[in-house]
């Protein structure tokens, strides 16, 4: 008997990519003000990179842990995707359940 199953998706994006992608956004995430163009360019790039469930969950978990360690302002973090004109299937928040994100 041969059992054929769907391959398990593995994330191709890394937390290092997510964290470095957010570097130009840190001032906004912590203090507010204007969102730098380079920040939005990087956010859009992360969205493009995360094209499957595993990548989206990895990105979410990295954003969640980074938000906790760097202490983002919750309102600034939630508003960032909209200010950059991107749609995320989750909030950037320390309370987001990243495991429920599906592609």
Automatic annotation (TrEMBL):
GO terms for molecular function: lipid binding. SUPFAM superfamilies: Bifunctional inhibitor/lipid-transfer protein/seed storage 2S albumin. Keywords: Disulfide bond, Lipid-binding, Transport. InterPro entries: Bifun_inhib/LTP/seed_sf, Bifunc_inhib/LTP/seed_store, Plant_nsLTP. PROSITE patterns: PLANT_LTP. The keyword Disulfide bond applies. Residues 15-98 form the Bifunctional inhibitor/plant lipid transfer protein/seed storage helical domain. The keyword Disulfide bond applies. Plant non-specific lipid-transfer proteins transfer phospholipids as well as galactolipids across membranes. May play a role in wax or cutin deposition in the cell walls of expanding epidermal cells and certain secretory tissues. This is Non-specific lipid-transfer protein. It comes from Lupinus luteus (European yellow lupine).
